[in-house]
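Before relying on records like the one below, remember that each one covers exactly one chain. Contacts with other chains, cofactors or solvent are not represented anywhere in the record.
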Amino acid sequence: MKLSSLFAACVLSAATLAAPARAEDYLGFQSPTGNIQCGLYRWSGGASVRCDLTQLTPSYTRAPADCEFDWGSSFAVDDRGKGYLACVSDAVGDPSNGVLPYGEAVSLGGISCVSARTGMTCTNAEGHGFTISKAKQKVF
């Protein structure tokens, strides 16, 4: 399930489930500069991470024809498969997100993200993911 579909599923699930989501199902964090905001999610079908850049010099400029929303500043990877640019109509940024200090990492559901002075890198167990910074972005 791609992350954009996950948000719709989460909204639907939240409306139909009586029990709240467990705290370990979501980690919100940001880079020390605040330019990179991320949300790492785990659900019954797997896990995904999405990171949004507030300011960037875009490395990718050709949006897919089927994307009707924002594209080019949100990067994602699921617990399986390659990293990708997400077509989104929302943001993962939240002022209450904790700061992930340079050199530190977070992991959830088989996905790990590492903060560095050079940007944020998130990968799954298959070695796929993305590396992003204000200056350059790469999916792999």
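Residues 1-21 have pLDDT under 50 and may be disordered.
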